[in-house]
Amino acid sequence: MGKQTILVVDDERDIRELLTITLGRMNLRVESAAGVTEAKHKLAEHDFQLCFTDMRMPDGSGQELIEFIAKNHPDLPVAMITAHGNVDAAVHALKAGAFDFVSKPVDINLLRRLVQTALKLSVNKAGVAQENVSEATDTQERLVGDSPAMQQVRTTITKLARNQAPVYISGESGVGKELVARLIHDLGPRSNGPFVPVNCGAVPSELMESEFFGHCKGSFTGAHADKEGLFQAANGGTLFLDEVADLPMHMQVKLLRVIQEKAVRPIGTHNEVQVDVRILSATHKDLAAMVEQSQFRQDLFYRINVIELCVPPLRERSGDIPKLVARILSRLTQAPGSDKPRLEPGALKALIDYPFPGNVRELENVLERAVALCENDIITQGDLMLSSAPGSVIVQNRPADFAGQGNPDAVVGKDTNGLTLDDLITTIERQKIMEALEETRYNKTAAARKLGITFRALRYKLKKLGID
Fold first, then answer.
1. CA distance 308 to 366
2. Running DSSP on this structure, what letter comes out for residue 207?
């Protein structure tokens, strides 16, 4: 196979020569063009594996060339060369289909990493069809559902995996935003690099800067050793900022700077560390509304929301529920000796009709509970314990001696002690289970028989209630 060839488009001879020398040292062949017209002629005559283009040229713009390449040479990665700090131009380029961008003055190390990442996308034409089939199979295997909405999500994921644009993944809690982020990473040129997820709402505000950017030994009380931050841990890969809306304002400012400069400054040092990280972010909150209310920085929102991917809620794709149920049940019963339960038709219909405010995560929880409660490996509608209204609980199929000694008011009646219905049910369950365990000298099989439930159901309840 011959050398891979790069096209450099810039009206400044110094930039063309710098890139030609640098890329030549990477054993790459370089063709150059001084403007858009010349670049289009070269694209028609030769096959290239990567293109660099300046923003402004005498006969056109880099944006125009990016759009031309996206339309006529969609498999060719193209990177914009921008003026230092010109974030707007970089964002517009990425939206138009650019693979990435590099700022002047060109940092040689960043340039090399960009080239190495981009060239991983270059496949010979004989392998393209097979690669596309493989990617489609992978996304369908991991992101279950044949609904039009999920087919569109999978198609978008495959496209997004082939560039470096920051992606903002929106959607309700429980729809699978982290799974989408992992797929974008795994199907792209960074798949061999780390995927580092972080829940921004789970990091204490006072530790955030150290967690994200690292610190040097002795930089503050308790800093007993050097520590790399999340950006350094994700170097060469992807950093997934989950619940990005929870970032405090001071961290939003610092995060914006890191994204723009592609460098971090650990606490306790004045030296910057270059990082090559793709940013994916997500939240269940309305980030645009937070920007309008001055709760989230507009410039950061603009920078991380180059491309938005909305993951639909489960209630909008209820036709996918049978396949999701089959997948979840297979996963829940993978242990040796476990039999895969089956759903009665009425139970499956109940799942399809239920609105699932908690989305796929709630479906998983419902099925996990049902697997523990069902008998003879048959899940009935009662085992699902679905509510008629989101947030409430229906207690069904419970033996009389377990559900309040045959007195329905003991479970579902009004509580005069200020307890919620869920608290009351939990209290009664704990009391009855402890009585049964004590009476059987903690023989769980005998205790389950005494309670009138299966051993598997008892084991589930012990885990849920924290009873050892």
1. 30
2. G
Q: How many CB atoms lie within 10 A of CB 339?
A: 8
Give one DSSP letter per residue of 220-249, joined into a string: STT--S-B--HHHHTTTSEEEEETGGG--H
How far, CA to CA in Å, does 134 sit from each of 141, 161, 266?
10, 14, 40
Handedness of CA 222, 225, 231, 233 (dihedral sign): negative
Q: Concatenate the DSSP letters of all residues of 77-110 into one string.
A: -EEEEE-TT-HHHHHHHHHHT-SEEEESSPPHHH
Q: How far apart are CA 213 and CA 228, in angstroms?
A: 7
The candidate with the shortest Cα–Cα distance to 284, out of 357, 382, 385, 341, is: 357
> Closest Cα to residue 26, out of 94, 115, 97?
115
To 10 degrees, what angle do helices 177-186 and 148-160 make?
40
Q: What is the DSSP string of 302-318?
A: HHH-SEEEEPPPGGGGG
pLDDT band at 292 (very low <50, low <70, confident <90, very high): very high
pLDDT digits 0-9 by tens, 89-134: 888 888 888 888 888 888 888 888 889 888 887 643 334 434 444 5
pLDDT score for 137: 53
What residues form DSSP beta bridges with 103? 82
In the chain, % helix, strand, coil (3-state, to 5) comes to: 50, 15, 35
CA distances 238 to 9, 161, 166, 291, Å, are: 29, 11, 10, 25
Rounded CA-CA distance 378/381 in Å is 10
Rounded Cα distance, 250 and 303, in Å: 16
Determine contact, residues 140/154, Cβ cutoff 8 Å: yes
What angle, 0 to 180 degrees and rounded to 10, lies between the N-to-C axes of helices 62-72 and 36-45? 20
* Other Cβ atoms closer than 10 A to 121: 18
Return the residue matching tokens 């199979």. Answer: 137
Asked whether the beta carbons of 19 and 106 are under 8 A apart, the reply is yes
What is the model's pLDDT at position 218? 64
- Please state the length of the chain: 468
In contact, 164 and 295? CB cutoff 8 Å: no
Q: Who contacts 95 (Cβ-Cβ below 8 Å, separation ≥6)?
A: 165, 306, 307
Task: Write out pLDDT tens, residues 296-306.
Answer: 999 999 889 98
CA angle 137, 141, 146 (to 5 degrees): 90
* β-pairing verdict for 60-61 and 56-57: antiparallel
Q: Are the CB atoms for 406 and 431 separated by under 8 Å? A: no
Scan for tokens 């219905």, then name that residue: 421
Main-chain dihedrals φ then ψ at residue 258, nearest 5 degrees = -65, -45
